[in-house]
Prior knowledge:
Radius of gyration: 33 Å
Helix content: 25-40%
Largest sheet: 9 strands, mixed
Strand order of the largest sheet: 28-29-30-31-32-33-34-35-36
Shape: globular
Number of strands: 38
Number of domains: 5
Distance between the termini: 47 Å
Amino acid sequence: MGCSNSLALQPRRAGNMSGSVPNGLYQGLISHNDLGDVVVPAKLKIELKDGTLYGDWEVFDHAGLTNSQWSSIFSEHLSAAASESCPFSLLDEQMLCWAWTSSPQQQLVSSDSPGSASDDQANGKIRLRCMTQVGCQDVIRGEILERGVKKRPQPVAQWDFRRGHFADLKANNSPKFQRYGHAYQADDGLVLSGDGFVVTEPLNLAQDLKAKTLEVWVAFHDSAQRDVGVMGVGLMDGRGALFDAVAYNQRGPRQWLNCSEFFNRTHTVGGAEESWANRSSSEFLRLVITYEENGRIQIYRNGMKYGQSYKTHGPVLLRKDSRVVFGVRHVWPFIAEDGSQSYEGTGHFEGVVQKAMLYDRALSEEEIHSGSFEMWSVHGAPYSDPEGDLNLKDLLKEFDGVKPARIAETKLKALTVPQLQRMVRYAARSCHNWPQRDGLTRNDMWSLNLYDLAKWLILPLTKPHKCSMVELFVRGDQPAVYFVSHWWGERIIEMLYCLVSHSESRNLKRDSGYWVCAYANNQWTLDNELSSNPETSSFYLAMTDERCRGVLVVLDPEATAFTRIWCAFEEFVALDITDALCRCGSTRPWSLDVVTFFKGEGTLLTQDTTVKDCTDHKPQLAKSTREARFPMQVLGHGLMLDLATAQATSKDDEIRVNEWMERKGGTKVANHRLRAVFAILAWRQCLTSNAEGSSDVEKLKLGSILRSDESLKVLRLDLSFLWLLQDRDVEALADGIPMSSLESVWLGFEWCTQLTNQAVVALGHKLRGASQLRDLHVSFFECTGIMGQAAAEFFYEICFSKKHLEVLMICFPQTMGDGDILKIVEALTQQPGLQDALLKELKLSFRGCEGMTDRAIEHFITWQPPQTMSSLKLCFAGCRLSAASLDSLSEWLARSLTSKTRSHLTVCLNFQQCLRIEEQAFHHLKDSLSKIPSLNFTLETPYFSDDGGGTVASTSSKHRIKQLSDKGLNLSALPRV
């Protein structure tokens, strides 16, 4: 939370104004443009009393703005509210005298004013007496400028392409334009279909410009489009004519940059990539590029600096008769067949341009910050009845003509992010007319929750049709991709932030559905939705639908969701589904994700790496960086949750759900399971947030919490890239793992270079007792402090008494040598229990083990793969092997896999960077494998093509090696083994 401040404003006009503007409370909000006009990081209240304006503002620490920057923003917007907005329309021609005060000691004093400001403190506010004398205007304006508060800059040209808005702009700074191709105006703005653009008439500026600023508000149809321009300016009189343009995805992937003729002033700036491939047309980005007279160029995105500035040769004159183009980078003229002049452009953009401005100087960073905010002001008494004429009139204006699509199954009534945004935008415009549940306090976007939204929007809008809210937005079934577990008291603006963050991280499509009970359930037939049996409720059916990928738990700072009985039920079911999928070995994607609103954004915890994480070269490191922002205090609530205390609005619901949980093992077991989930999620952050390593783990008793979950079946924890991870940290983890029930373990220690043999000995000894394991994945890649002998002993230990083991994947450190393979083979052939296991998949990675030679392969091929095995993956990348090893392996595979009892086998071999293996060995491999009809084969090799790039070969049962050219194998890229 940021700080609260007070300010006072003095409307100045001759005579007494109190009779012309009524006393009362005037509330407003400030909106940042990260998600169109709906994201509200601050709230503002204005009170007019006896000719004096009082303002209180409260701001969240958002967007990196300082307190002084916020003061400028609020002063400016409060001034605008007093001089331009509806309650103060009578003051349009009058000077507004005002001051911002961060403390009661700061005052605005004008010596030329007959009525000096006096200090009348009440609840921390400053009162300024009315100044009625006209002569003090200049003095007051000077006082304001000294405090750094400036009027918003005026553009020399501007365009608003929203239908009906262009006519409202003044003709002298809004040049007319001509559309070409598929470009048309709609309610949202100028719609460009990828082959259309707009060219304006000459600007006719007063003079040539040595500095300038371009500003454009734009929305994507597809952020994967390449080499496109949004707004450009220049003479546009030929292919080589000077121009500058706001361009996208040209030299940097999915990044913004300035494009210019022959790239003279074009450089990548290192800004963030646009991550959501299909942005809604309502999600507008505000892009600004400033061009200083000395040649320095800076890009801004939504009011914040985007990448680094850079300097070019300058100044570059913008001719006063230049034109502006939209939807392309630049255009050039040609004579059409009918003799008229037309234009042809390059870099066609697909999306929507809402509005644009051209300024005759380079705007300052503060001015650009301020321009990112918009304000609504309302006045008058709040509405008293949700079904009253005033509220229904507002609803009719927004949702007139909406007809419900009748959906039979509630589990198919999921909500998409754009549909939620539509409701939030309406709420942002209307919620100040809705009193809170106490009936007295007005709502704003930092107080509005689902209880309020249901009362003032959902119920009045759905009553005529007796349907769910979702049915008013869709045409047919809309299944859930994720089920949302949340508290109704969560602020809807924060939930929107959380869903957007989750959707981006998971790379979900725009039409992906989130099942949210308030919108999916028919509020007029709730008895049918909830049912007497929780397993027939809409909640349960939506979560267990085969198309649902998981549960997203939305938490407020106090984790209130854990105190609500239906949320407890949802988390309980999520864990049951996890266990069921583990037991049957299902490949169905399923995750329990946790998200909270923190410092202006949704911060996400996941049990696995997300699609967005995997776009990074080091996905696990990207996951760690993302989760480091999650607030520890929220995790703390998860570690102490107690479902036995959870309550519901309906006592009957509370009784039914508690009885169901008792039949499933009771809330005590559920508490241990859920606390263990949060312990695992918190483990890495505890290690990274404290230089002493495990002290936070010990302080929060994570090991004890994890050990208490005696029903734990799945453990996924990746500590990769924790450079300072110590042996004691791994020992603490091993001590906390409950072994009796574990069926699946995934542990990552890649690049933990401080670990030694002591760590793997402790972990191996602990995993030795996990007799119920079905799959085990452990990686020690680049753990250079662990010796090969200790790693081989670790493998021997974990293979002990594993009768149920089906999947075994181990990545060894680079210290493995020839002799260490003997211990691996001994474990595979002699360990009690492993020979009786139904081992289906084995992956052993010796990547980078330069101590391994042909002798290691000779040791390894003494092992015989079991008949149950369907997949074998061996990585010898970077080992010191020769063609002799490949010959030995090919003969071994042919000998081992000729059994008639084997129906199918997939073999993957990785020999990247094994430069001693020659091409002829691949031909011999082909001949050997051609005798095996049931083999699918993948090979990654060090074979070099003419361009010197690494290559990969693939074979299948019918075509072992698909094509051999004169130069060798025709190779295609496949994932690493």
